[in-house]
Amino acid sequence: MTTPRYKLHFTVPTPFLEVCKQAVFSAGAGTTPDGKYSQVCFETQGTGQFMPGPSAKPALGEVDKIEKIEEVKIELLCVGKDVMLAAVDKLKNAHPYEEVAYEVYLIENV
Q: Is the confidence at residue 79, as pLDDT, over 80?
C-alpha cells in the first residue's frame, strides 16, 4: 500500500514566515517521498485582508478596521497522514493569528 500524500497550503504574515516554516518542517512536512530532499516548499507573496470583529483578539490590526498585511502563501508536501496532522498542529501553535488560514488536500496517485 502506498503512503498517502497531502498538500498543505497556508498563509502567514511575512515577519512570521521563517518561524512557521520551521515549525512545519520540524514535523517532517516538506520532505520528498524518497527522503532525498527536505524543507522543500513553494512561496508566493501577496496581500491578505481581514477585519477583526468585536470579540476578536487580533495579533495584528484593530477591531472593526480593515487591515491589509503583506503575507506569504506556502505550499508543501506531507508524506503520511501522521506528518500532515503534526504539521497542522505545529503550524497552529507557531502562527500568530487566532484563526489560521490553511488548506489540506489529499493527492491522488495517477
A: yes
